[in-house]
Structures are given as structure tokens and as C-alpha cells.
Amino acid sequence: MAKLAIKNENITSFGGIYHIMDVFSKLGFEKLTESVLGKRECSDKAFSHGSIFGSLFFSYLCGGECLENINTLIGQFRQRPGTQLPGADTVGRGLKELAEENIVYKSEISGKSYSFNAAEKLDTLLLRMIRQMGLIKVGSHVDLDFDHQFIPAHKFDAKYSYKQDFGYFPGWASIGGIIVGGENRDGNTNVKFHQEDTLRRIMDRVISELGVTIERFRADCGSFSKEIIQTVEQRCNTFYIRAANCGTRYEEFRQLKEWKSVEVGYEKYDVTSINMDNLIEGKSYRLVVQRSPLRDKGGKKQTDMFGVIYTYRCILTNDWVSTEKDIITFYNGRGASEKNFDIQNNDFGWAHLHVLSD
User: Entry's Pfam families (predicted)?
Assistant: First the structure.
């Protein structure tokens, strides 16, 4: 007996996106977006900022990579009753309207100027969305990670980086797996250059908009400078920053006697702590030192005339209570936050930046 199938022309492989649209609608993101960004300065019939973000975001969730993919998916989106979303050209114009003026800093050493873009309105909108979704509770104590991510881009304003490509070098702050702020910077900007200003803006905004206390701050050696440490220490309870130039202290470390053996991540290390009093006048910090023997390709320890050769790594902190093992374990956890960059690159368009100007 022949089987009959009734085909509905409205069947779509992207039907799951309609549930997400319903959730966004119930959360009131359209009104929230308008309250932060204001109405578009166009006719009353123009698409709102919320609709523009919706087209872009929903296309990413359906596997879109480029702005033009919106035009392929827009017909699917409009099958949801009452849904009117803009196409790629309108989205591009709408995003361009949100551009903010760059902040330009001039280096006193080289005389060169570097452009930063704080995108304050968009960062504020991000935090208010996070708060409205209840992702981070008001009054909670949080751990804030900060890092930079080079984004290759052959755009008209992209600068050549030491990464040997043209692009941008934004700094990003995250709490757990949630990005809570970012600032774009020229691709040729040194990571430490005016980073204290970026952190001041981001951390102050996180504290005021989310109503949280930054309990712990984590960053790599790109944040190891006097100005950055002073800025961070004023805005968190404890900080953990990878110390740079540990090699210059090699002789000092070799003279240390009070080493303890610990296991971190199934690897054994010797650890100790020393005071660091010469970084900022009137301040004393704790330098947690970790050493491991240098080994050859066969796994044999390498030696010189003084004995075993060690590799040293250090973490600067104002935490005088936790053990060395706890501090190293916590710092190593920042690697998980770097997964945020993989997600943004692969799923949300960082690898395919839109051309909004020429």
C-alpha cells in the first residue's frame, strides 16, 4: 500500500529558533534596548535597534557566519507569526549608527597615537541584559577575568600587529562563562598601554550595573604593571596576576631554601612565597613562586655546575591567607575563561567581522 505524506510548506529546519524568539520577547529585551540606546533617528516605520540585534543574533544561532547569511534565513524567521526582522543591509546600517567616537591616547615614549573604543552604551546594554536574565545575582561576590584577544581583520582601520597580521586587539572581561565588558584597541597597541583606563571603565561599570562585589581578579602577565595593579586593587578584594620577568630574579630564587612540594593538576612542583616590596612605594605584595626542573627530550632533568636547572613561574597577589597550591590552582582556572574566545570566534562572528565602513 502506498504511503501518503502531507507536506506543510511552513516546515523549517530552524523551528527551534522560534522558542528563543519567544523567550527574548518575554524578557522584554526590545524595550530594554530602546531604553539604553534610544530610538533610531529614522522614520517611525524603521526597524528598531532590538530588531536589528535580533536578526544578527538569531542568524548566528542558526549557523550564520556573515552578515549576508541573514538574507538566507530571514524568510524562515518571518514564518513566526508577528515577526518582522530586517535584512542584512538594514542590519549593517543600524550597527554603523551605533558606532561611538574613538578615544585616542598618545604614547609619551614613541609619540605614536593609538585608538581605543569603549562602546559604553553597548557594554551598558550587555550588563543590563545579564541582570534582566538573572545570570549574575545582585549582591553576589564574583571572580573577574581579564584578557586580550587578537582578532585578524583586513579592514580599512586595522593595524599590523606583532601577531603578524592586520586586525584589532580588544580587551575582554568575563565572569565565569559570561562576557561582561570589552574595549576595542588598535591591533598594534601594546597590551599594557593604558590598560588601567580600560579596566577602570569596565570594572566600575560592572560594579554599578550588576550590583556585585569583585571578590577576585585574575589576569596574565599582560596586566603586570604598577598602574594596572593600583587600578585593580582599588576595585577588588584580592587579585592574582602572572608576574613578568621572573628570569631576572633567577639568582634570588636559587638562594631560597623554604620550598614545599605540591601536586597541581597531576604535576608535582616546588612552591614558596616571598615578599615583593619594591613594586609600589609603601606597598608589600606576596609573590608566589613555582619551580619545576627543566628536562630534555628524554625526560631527564638538566643540570649545570650548580645543580638542577629550574624553570620559575610567579603569581603576584595581595592574598596572604591562601596556600600556594590554592593560589596556583585558582590562577590556572583562568584557562577555562579563554574558551569564551573560541565560542565567540566560531559561533558569533568574530572570525567574520562585518564591513560597515570603507
Answer: DDE_Tnp_1_4
CA distance 80 to 251: 69
What does the block give as the cell for 32? 530594554
Domains of the chain, residue spans:
17-97, 103-352
DSSP lists the bridge partners of residue 181 as 173
What the block records as the C-alpha cell of 113 is 597615537
- pTM score of the predicted model: 0.89
Residue 273, all three cell numbers: 612565597
Q: Is the Cα dihedral 27, 30, 32, 33 positive or negative?
A: positive
pLDDT tens figures, 192-246 = 999 999 999 999 999 999 999 999 999 999 999 999 999 999 999 999 999 987 6
Are the beta carbons of 116 and 190 closer than 8 angstroms? no
Q: What letter does residue 318 receive in the DSSP assignment?
A: S
> Residue 186 gets which letter from DSSP?
B
Question: Cell 649545570 appears where?
Answer: 304
Helices (H), 192-320: 195-210, 226-233, 250-254
Best CA proximity match to 122, nearest among 144, 100, 138: 100
- Identify the helix (H) or strand (E) that includes residue 330: helix 324-332
CATH class of 103-352: alpha beta
- What tens digit of pLDDT does each residue of 109-157 get? 999 999 999 999 999 999 999 999 999 999 999 999 999 999 998 888 8
Summary count for the chain: helices (H), strands (E): 12, 16
Residue 216: enclosing H or E segment and its boundaries? strand 213-219
For the chain, how many residues are written?
358
Residue whose C-alpha cell is 559561533: 347
Q: Is 111 left (phi over 0), alpha (psi -120 to 50) or beta?
A: left
Q: Report the alpha-carbon distance of residue 186 to residue 311 in Å, rounded.
A: 34
Contact (CB, 8 A) for 126 and 133: no
In the predicted structure, residue 265 carries a pLDDT above the cut 60: yes
Each residue of 78-94: pLDDT tens digit? 888 888 899 999 999 99
